[in-house]
Amino acid sequence: MTPVPDVIEGFKRGDPDAVRAVYQEHAGAVYTVARSIVHDRELAADVVQQTFVKAWRAAKSFEGNRQLAPWLYSIARRTAIDTLRSETKPTRGGHAPETDVGVQPETFERTWERFEVRRAIDALPDGERVVVRLSHMEGHTHEAIAERLGIPIGTVKSRSGRAHKRLASALAHLSANQAGADDVEKVEDPT
Amino acid sequence: MTDPVDSLDEPSDAELAELTALLARADQWGDPPRSLEDDIVAAIAAEAAGDATDGNGAVAPPAAIAEHRSRRRWPASRLLGAAAAVAVVVAGVAVITRSDDDGGVAFALEGTEAAPDASAAVTVSATPAGLKILLDADGLPGAPDGYMYEAWVGDGDLSVSAGTFHLRGGSGTIELWAGVTDRSFRRLWITLEPIDDDPSSSRDARLRGEFSLPDD
């Protein structure tokens, strides 16, 4: 899903409905990238906020025929790395940093992969997404999922199969040649 | 109407194995705090009005974020903005405390915007082992599957977990402990937390209040 031009134009103006539309489509993916770099939920939430505000500030230069997702990804990754570096500096009192985190973030390709996987997850229909979540993240069997959701096991299997077809199709470019990452590398952080 | 998925090929075993590996990562599924969307919309609206930056071009944190930061210090350039944000939030919190018979203090927690119908009566006592907290919640639903509630005490800059509970079996007095005795810990709040491998706060607060322990 890519925001229609009207949404992008509204986002540039700071229209609340357009900001919400862009946020709702991309927040999960931006948060995933942030967490993979800063390894802390609170910091990751800060990164999400900074990313969307920075994107709005820079949106005037965003051309409507470009893809919004790679542009947001570039801002998010850069913001997360800056936040991580800021957090690992000594504090004002001169004592050691409080957060014991690694200073080497994941590679560009790896975080792009996480971004794209999350976007594919978020694009699934609700009924399919919950089945995939319960199956892959929480490790439930189809029988347990059927009982938990109160639906026939055949429905669980059907949703699971359709979800996997959608995910495999949406993410085929990742295993093909990292073409998506190549596209993103051409986008400079506008902030 | 035909679903486009019907025309897609079935994934191969190798593709399914790769998908399984990608989807099993817990951090692939996390969501930002529910309040963040409103915070961002408000931050952009405020900046559009010309007054939201901290003077150095940095993004000023919204109140909800400023309030729940924990375990870390802020750069000096952001301290003043943070203090102002915290003050705004605290101004809306009832600070009603009284001493009880055991030398502790009784006070109320108010529901946040995420749980406007919730409240709690709390008693906090300083003991040789730490802070003993007795909490009776009202109007707070049982935590959804995969989630739990977590109590936190804080001094505005540092927060310490005081334990977890779920309330799925109904209400009752909940006994919580925090391993701190520093009297600067004057704030208590309850967050809804996903059950995962991340010990940090979700910042999804449901109840909050303040207390003041009596002097020795």
Explain how this protein is built.
The complex is a heterodimer of chains A (191) and B (216). Chain A has ten helices and no strands. With 216 residues, chain B is of the alpha+beta class. Chain B folds into two domains: 56 residues, no CATH class; 114 residues, Immunoglobulin-like (Sandwich), CATH 2.60.40. Chain B starts with 12 loop residues before the first helix and ends in a 6-residue tail after the last strand. At the A-B interface, helix 2, helix 3, helix 5, helix 6 and helix 8 of A face helix 1 and helix 2 of B.
Mean pLDDT of chain B: 73
What number of structural domains do the residues of chain A give? 1
Number of strands of chain A: 0
Task: Give the proportion of residues in helices of chain B.
Answer: 10-25%
Instruction: Please report which band the strand proportion of chain A falls in: under 5%, 5-15%, 15-25%, 25-35%, 35-45% or over 45%.
Output: under 5%
Query: What is the helix/strand order of chain B?
Result: HHHHEEEEEEEEE
How are the secondary structure elements laid out?
The complex is a heterodimer of chains A (191) and B (216).
Chain A: H1 5-13, H2 16-38, H3 41-58, H4 68-87, H5 108-122, H6 126-137, H7 142-149, H8 153-170, H9 172-177, H10 179-185
Helix pairs in contact in A: 1-2, 2-3, 2-4, 2-5, 3-4, 4-10, 6-8, 7-8
Chain B: H1 13-23, H2 36-48, H3 63-68, H4 76-91, E1 97-99, E2 105-111, E3 119-127, E4 130-138, E5 147-154, E6 159-165, E7 173-178, E8 187-194, E9 205-210
Antiparallel strand pairs in B: 1-2, 2-3, 2-9, 3-4, 4-7, 5-6, 5-8, 8-9
Structure summarized in a few sentences:
The complex is a heterodimer of chains A (191) and B (216). Chain A is mainly alpha-helical and 191 residues long. Chain A has helices at residues 5-13, 16-38, 41-58, 68-87, 108-122, 126-137, 142-149, 153-170, 172-177, 179-185.
